[in-house]
């Protein structure tokens, strides 16, 4: 029988090992939010938090309870814009990146 690995473990290991991959995940989450796919964006952010600073670190940086942050970043979560901005800011800082938005006209 073939050995399999957990997708979440593989994702976390790659994000820890490859800063460009972690930055691409953050970029994808931001793009998904802006394009109206918040459920998928929250899941990507949750995985990125787990792979980088962890929910305890995020809780400390945002002054929000860890359990609340877990709920916010679940598929059915509903974070406020203030909370979402705080989460993005912490992740951005931890990855050492800046987010810029470039508008592209739809075809």
Number of spatially distinct domains: 1
Supply the helix-strand structural class. Answer: mainly alpha
Number of helices: 6
User: What percentage of the residues does DSSP assign to strands (E)?
Assistant: under 5%
Query: Whole-Å distance between the termini?
Result: 48 Å
Explain the overall architecture:
This protein has 107 residues and is an all-alpha fold. It has one domain (7-95). Helices cover 67% and strands 0% of the residues. The protein contains six helices and no strands. The protein has helices spanning 7-17, 19-34, 38-51, 54-62, 66-72, 81-95. Helix 1 crosses helix 3 and helix 2 packs antiparallel against helix 3. The longest helix has 16 residues, at 19-34.
Keywords:
107 residues; mainly alpha; 6 helices
Q: Brief overview, please?
A:
With 107 residues, the chain is mainly alpha-helical. The chain has helices at residues 7-17, 19-34, 38-51, 54-62, 66-72, 81-95. The chain starts with 6 loop residues before the first helix and ends in a 12-residue tail after the last helix.
């Amino acid at each position: 029988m073939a050995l399999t690995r957990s997708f979440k473990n593989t994702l976390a290991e790659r994000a820890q090992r490859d800063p460009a991959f972690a930055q691409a995940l953050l970029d994808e989450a931001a793009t998904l939010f802006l394009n109206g796919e918040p459920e998928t964006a929250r899941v990507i952010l949750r995985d990125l938090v787990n792979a980088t600073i962890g929910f305890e670190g995020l809780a400390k940086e945002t002054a929000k309870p860890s359990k609340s942050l877990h709920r916010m970043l679940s598929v059915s979560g509903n974070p406020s814009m203030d909370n979402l901005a705080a989460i993005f800011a912490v992740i951005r800082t931890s990855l050492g990146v800046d987010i810029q938005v470039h508008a592209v006209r739809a075809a």
